[in-house]
Amino acid sequence: MEPRYPKLLCFSFALVFSFTFLPNPVSPLSPCSFPAVFNFGDSNSDTGGLSAAFGQAPSPNGETYFGAPAGRFSDGRLIIDFIAESLGLPYLSAYLDALGSNFSHGANFATAGSTIRPQNTTMAQSGYSPISLNVQFVEFSDFRNRSQIFRNRGGVFQELLPKEEDFAAALYTFDIGQNDLTAGYKLNMTTEQVKAYVPDLLDSLSNIIKYVHARGARSFWIHNTGPVGCYPYVMDRFPITAAQVDKHGCASPYNEVAQYFNSRLKGAVAQLRKDLPEAAITYVDVYSVKYRLISQARKQGFMDPFKVCCGHGGKYNYNQAFKCGAKIKVGGKEVVISKSCENPRVRISWDGVHFTEAANKWIFDRIVDGSFSDPPIPLRMACHRVDH
């Protein structure tokens, strides 16, 4: 499950050597200075997009860090928030959020429920966002053009919108694909049928990355998809036999699909490096980090990895009909029945679908140094192309 990069030690030694023994560190090994981050994705990195369009993620979402709902489907910060923090940047405002947004250091086009490939259904029917990846690109392209028109007017626009040169120097992050895999199972497809459309998904993703590159992007940080077979909402909703449960309690067929997607994604990234010689593209294996956390939960200071923190009833404290923050009427009054657990800091699953802030921080701490990246470079070096 966990990656092995035999060149990591050599690369790390070379990196240390260059900074320690050379009087002037060579520029390709100098830390990057990202003035902005532009993010594309789903609920793993949505900082308010879906909430702006379809209503705020209800309390107790956001309670741990923000003290109130903050557009995130978690009790606090997401991995994208920790990425921004580590780069010395503010948290990303959602592109769709008209209230209180500041785009001077980037924008977030992700929405919860987003997919790479547009779904032939409504959000009310399936839960999938209409803001698929191709729509996110249209939003970005429009933002790229119009932000400069408004910024040139001066005044408050100069404070709220990025500089022209920031688009080329920014970091472009992608975390999407998980919903595309579960979409097939919701249509009663077999595992082989889901695998069959993965190449088409990755062709679409590759094309979008090329389009973003054509609009000036040069530095890409691309997450693979997580072990969906370990997520309570998958194990609760889709059929699993005892023989399909692995030694850590996860559903093997769904994880195998995720691994297949990731393998093909890594190949697609390798091809993108050939097609886009000016781009620095980092593939980040979050699957292995998340699987390690879930399989070693207690060793890492967490409780039962399948027990949902904010939920109600069911085997995993997860019930699709009563999601986090759900209310019912009792005696004419609304009463919250899907409440937060007492201590989210020791839980991994926040609501059966998403991770707690504590889990997100644990995951970020292990990917930030490049240990799970290809090439194995830290986040702060992701503007440099390293051929290997």
How does this model look, in words?
With 388 residues, the chain is an alpha/beta fold. The protein has helices spanning 8-21, 49-54, 79-86, 123-126, 133-151, 156-160, 166-169, 178-186, 191-196, 198-214, 232-237, 252-275, 286-295, 357-367, and strands at residues 37-41, 106-108, 171-175, 219-223, 280-284, 327-330, 333-336, 373-374. The strands form two sheets. A six-stranded mixed β-sheet has the order 2-1-3-4-5-8. Strands 6-7 form a two-stranded antiparallel ribbon. A hairpin with a 2-residue loop joins β6 (327-330) and β7. α5 runs parallel beside α10 (198-214), α10 packs parallel to α12 and α13 (286-295) crosses α14 (357-367). It is globular, with a radius of gyration of 21 Å. 47% of the residues are buried.
Largest sheet: 6 strands, mixed
Distance between the termini: 22 Å
Low-confidence stretches: 1-27
Q: How helix-rich are the residues, as a percent range?
A: 25-40%
Element order: H for helix, E for strand: HEHHEHHHHEHHHEHHEHEEHE
Q: What percentage of the residues does DSSP assign to strands (E)? A: 5-15%
Rg over C-alpha atoms, rounded to the nearest angstrom: 21 Å
Mean pLDDT: 93
Give the strand order, joined by hyphens, for the main sheet: 2-1-3-4-5-8
According to DSSP, the number of beta strands is: 8
Structural class: alpha/beta
Based on CA inertia axes, which overall geometry fits? globular
In DSSP terms, counting alpha (H) and pi (I) runs of 4 or more, how many helices? 14
Give a short overview:
The protein has helices at residues 8-21, 49-54, 79-86, 123-126, 133-151, 156-160, 166-169, 178-186, 191-196, 198-214, 232-237, 252-275, 286-295, 357-367, and strands at residues 37-41, 106-108, 171-175, 219-223, 280-284, 327-330, 333-336, 373-374.
